[in-house]
Amino acid sequence: MINAIDENGDGQIDIEDIIIKGLMIPVVRLDRSEFLRKEFMKDYPKETIAAAIEHNPAYAQISSDDINQIADEVIKFERYCVSGISAALCAPGGAVMTATIPADIIQYYAYMLRAAQKLMYLYGFPQIDTLEKGQKFDSETINILIICLVLCLALQELTMH
Prior knowledge:
Elements: H1 2-5, H2 15-23, H3 32-40, H4 46-54, H5 64-90, H6 94-99, H7 101-122, H8 139-160
C-alpha cells in the first residue's frame, strides 16, 4: 500500500505524496491557461489575456486590485463547494455520517488544492505539470503549494467569521 501512495519514492507517506496524488486527479488539476483566460475574459482584451498567460497577470498590467478581487472570489467559490458537499455527505446523520468522514476529508483537500493552484496562477506562478510520468516536484514547488494550502485554510477561516 505504501508503494501505491509513495509518489516521491522516499518510503514514507507524507504531505508531498498527498499533493502529488491530488494533482493527478483530473477534477483537481487545473490548466493555467484555461483558468486565466476564463477569469479575465469579461474584463480584458484578448491581447492582455494572452500576455497574462504567456508571462503572468502583473506583466500584462492587470491591476493588483482586480487580481485580489478574483482571488477573494476563488476562495469563496471553493469554500461554498466544499461546504455544500460536506453538508450533503453529512445529511444522512447517525452511523452513516461516520462513514462519510474519509470522503469529506478527501474532498476538502481536493478543493483546497484547486484553490491553491488558482491563487498561484493568479499571482504569476507557472503551470504545475503532473502529467509527465515519473516526474518529481522540486522542493520549491512543494513548499509553495504547502504555503498556499495553509493560506487557503487560514483565509477560509477568516472569511467564515
